Amino acid sequence: MSEFTHFDSAGRARMVDVTEKSVTDRSATARGRVFAAPETIAKIKAGGFGKGDVLAVARLAGIMGAKKTPDLIPLCHPLSLTKVAVDLTLDEAASTVEIEATCRLAGRTGVEMEALTAVTVAALTVYDMCKAVDKAMRIGDVRLVEKTGGKSGDFKQD
After folding, report:
1. pLDDT in tens, 83-127
2. Active-site residue identified among 87, 91, 128, 141
3. In the chain, which ranges are continuous DSSP H helix?
4. Prediction pTM value
């Protein structure tokens, strides 16, 4: 089996060959948040944006983003995802939009990048829909929190 690196013996970038890896059930969950002004969070909650339901649009954008990961991240494998779930919740006390994405498949490579992309695209969509009233929003804390399956085993972070 080839070494798992994005560089060949001459140092050129390449897609990792996963041909010899076993097909296993794999999942990954990522989280992130959008930090916004309390007035922005209240306006999202009230449905006060003319562009539509911010959380519903961001959820759809996150799902679409996960499916487009190989178009966005060089050298990512195109995957047949069997599940993409994106959940967004308002934390009024912290003045944030909390985002969690879970991706699953049965395949030869993991779905960490798809989960991270889903969170990031959802966060960018929240920003885009709310920027007219709050250009100071920040996107942060995007991280992998759980991964199962594959050769490297399971991973869990709180």
Report:
1. 999 999 999 999 999 999 999 999 988 899 999 999 999 999 999
2. 128
3. 38-46, 54-67, 69-72, 112-130
4. 0.91
